Write the structure tokens for this entry.
Amino acid sequence: MKLEKTYVLSTGRAVKVITKPTLPKEKPYDKIDLEVLIKEPKEEDFRPPIGKTHPQYWKLKKLSAEESKLIEIQYSGLSDKQIRNALKEFEQIQASMN
């Protein structure tokens, strides 16, 4: 199961939050995998917030997966409240299916 939620920020940037359970081979299994993609007003497709041309891209390569994910979330422009709401909605849907 996967939940996609799109937020449009005051700057016109669209931010898509994709939540899904982690894969069984990942630890711990009961966690939620969160992916954040952005789309600027003049772009047609969503993309990661930090690409190869971004100044922080090489810094991400040196960090752990969790640390780089946090930096990507920060650079997306989403507030902590919006992230918490997306995670809460996913957890509610997941709980109602069990």
User: Anything to note?
Assistant: The mean pLDDT is 81. Residues 3-97 form one domain. The two ends are 12 Å apart (CA to CA). The chain has one domain: 3-97.
